[in-house]
Amino acid sequence: MNKIRMIWIAVVAVLVIAGCSNETPLVENEPVNTSVQGLELSKQPQPEEKKEATPAGESDEASEDQSVAKAADLSPSAPASSAEKPTSKEQGEDVVSSLKELSLISKTMEEVRQQLGEAKTTAKGGGFTSWQYDHPCKEGYHYPETAVSVDVQGLESGSMKAQLMISFNENRVVESYSIYHVVDGEIMVYRVTGAGAVEEPGQAD
């Protein structure tokens, strides 16, 4: 009996050993290949925030516009209208307007002299005395005629602004006076008497 038991024990032992030899041996501390996986993860692009694309040149143009706007704000505003020198025509109109505002009727020679100064030319005849005052337009212009007369050429060319002719009666007071000037290229005479004033075309008294 003991022999039979020993034989069975031996057989069981052999079977156990054979079964254990067929199993895949466990490998402790088998290294896990994570290097490739780790590399691939490191190479994966990280999600980026989406930015709105700015059209080419827009930022430069915007900055230029802002700079121009700032410069415009800082620069002093130009005046609405600049003072210009009056033209010869405007100067002539001013002189004529001033002469038309005179009130010389019935004034004596002395009063006229005090108001207007010495006449450029004087003349006597038939109990009347005439005084002539010239108002040149151009500096240095001088009407050479020594007799009381209208400077037709000077008025038409613009060299003379206006001429004032005063007529005194035998009592040496102003009876009438005339202002010669040009309107639209035509010589006009503004004549004042005791009865009033009238303007009409004319070249000489």
The succession of helices and strands, N to C, reads HHHHHEEHEEEE
Distance between the termini: 185 Å
Low-confidence stretches: 23-28, 31-45, 67-82
Radius of gyration: 60 Å
Q: What sort of overall outline do the alpha carbons produce when their principal axes are compared?
A: rod-shaped
- Report the portion of residues in β strands: 15-25%
User: Quick one: biggest sheet?
Assistant: 6 strands, antiparallel
The overall strand count is 6
Helix content: 25-40%
Number of helices: 6
What features would you highlight for this structure?
single chain, 205 residues, alpha+beta, six-stranded antiparallel β-sheet, 6 strands, 36% helix, rod-shaped
Short description:
This protein is an alpha+beta fold. The chain has helices at 2-22, 35-43, 58-74, 88-100, 109-116, 152-157; strands at 121-125, 128-136, 160-168, 174-183, 186-193, 196-201.
